[in-house]
Amino acid sequence: MSKRAGFVALIGEPNAGKSTLLNRMVGAKVSIVTHKVQTTRTRIRGVALEGEAQIVFVDTPGLFRPRRRLDRAMVAAAWGGAADADIVVLMIEAHRGLTPGVEAILDSMEDRAGRSPVALAINKIDRVESKVLLALTEKMNARYPFTQTFMISAEKGFGVDDLRGWLGGELPEGPWLYPEDQIADMPLRMIAAEMTREKLTLRLHQELPYQLTVETEGWEEKPDGSVKIDQIIYVVRDGHKGIILGKKGETIKTVSTLAREEITTFLERKVHLFLMVKVRTGWLDEKERYNEMGLDYSDGAS
């Protein structure tokens, strides 16, 4: 059997389950997964193997109505990921159905018709009855000519193997794009920063998670095989610094512990994690921050 390889873009509304599906497909945590919307900022590629096929997933930011420069850059990155892919998978939530947001995505997809096959993945199928699911399937396929439809639960794994098997068979023939043991093309420094940002997002509330970023400033390999990681949490206002630190430093201690445990599991070695909070009032408009997140600064221009 000849080898196959190619790119698959996962698109959909925020919180549709794209990151959860990516992590399950790959078999490791390479994308931030939280209950907050718009948490994926970069086009994170996870690499999964399906027989002789290597599937390179592009986990795009959720598609939504942009307001700020960062929002606009994220939406541009999402459509850029779809345009570059061999196959596009639109994910929707079974219990929410054909929302105005999904309608808007479908309208945009029609403008991009003919570029790549598009499959529909209806996620969270355990939340609705079968008759509701069938009606939604008919409505979606009447609305857009999907190449294939899959009913899945990314969280529980239902239908995921069928989707991965289909994707592997549809990719073009050709040599693999990454080494067999590589699961993501993000630098480890960025993956570690994303893991810390996830813990902050889960711990904090309202707007603050979208006004902070985490950067890995130092990465020191120790003789005993462990690694010392220094990270900076940037916030836009001085008041945010106190929120992240928490009373007597409890919040940042908890975040540090949870992040260190997850990074340790991911790297499979001991991790010494040190977090520092700094105020950088204009980071949301700094070109360098966008470059580090894999976003195009010019895409965020109004």
Fold and architecture overview:
The protein has 302 residues and is an alpha/beta fold. It has two domains: 4-170, 3-Layer(aba) Sandwich (Rossmann fold), CATH 3.40.50.300; 188-300, GMP Synthetase, Chain A, domain 3, CATH 3.30.300.20. Helix content is 36%, strand content 23%. The protein is built from nine helices and nine strands. It has helices at residues 18-26, 69-84, 100-111, 130-143, 160-170, 188-203, 238-245, 250-267, 287-292, and strands spanning 4-12, 44-50, 53-59, 87-93, 118-123, 148-151, 212-221, 227-235, 271-279. It starts with a strand and ends in a 10-residue tail after the last helix. The relative contact order is 0.15.
Helix-strand layout with pairing:
Elements: E1 4-12, H1 18-26, E2 44-50, E3 53-59, H2 69-84, E4 87-93, H3 100-111, E5 118-123, H4 130-143, E6 148-151, H5 160-170, H6 188-203, E7 212-221, E8 227-235, H7 238-245, H8 250-267, E9 271-279, H9 287-292
Parallel strand pairs: 1-3, 1-4, 4-5, 5-6, 8-9
Antiparallel strand pairs: 2-3, 7-8
Provide key terms for this protein.
single chain, 302 residues, alpha/beta, Rossmann fold, GMP Synthetase, Chain A, domain 3, six-stranded mixed sheet, 9 strands, globular
CATH superfamily of the largest domain: P-loop containing nucleotide triphosphate hydrolases
The total count of helices amounts to 9
| Overall shape | globular
Intertermini distance: 49 Å
In this structure, how is the largest beta sheet organized?
A: 6 strands, mixed
Low-confidence stretches: 32-42
Mean pLDDT: 79
Order of helices and strands: EHEEHEHEHEHHEEHHEH
Strand order of the largest sheet: 2-3-1-4-5-6
Examine the coordinates and then state which fold CATH places here, giving the name of the CATH topology of the largest domain. Rossmann fold
Strand elements, count:
9
Protein structure class = alpha/beta
CATH architectural designation of the largest domain: 3-Layer(aba) Sandwich
What Rg do the Cα atoms give? Answer: 20 Å
Q: Report helical residue fraction.
A: 25-40%
Instruction: Tally the structural domains.
Output: 2
The level 1 CATH classification of the largest domain is Alpha Beta
Strand content: 15-25%
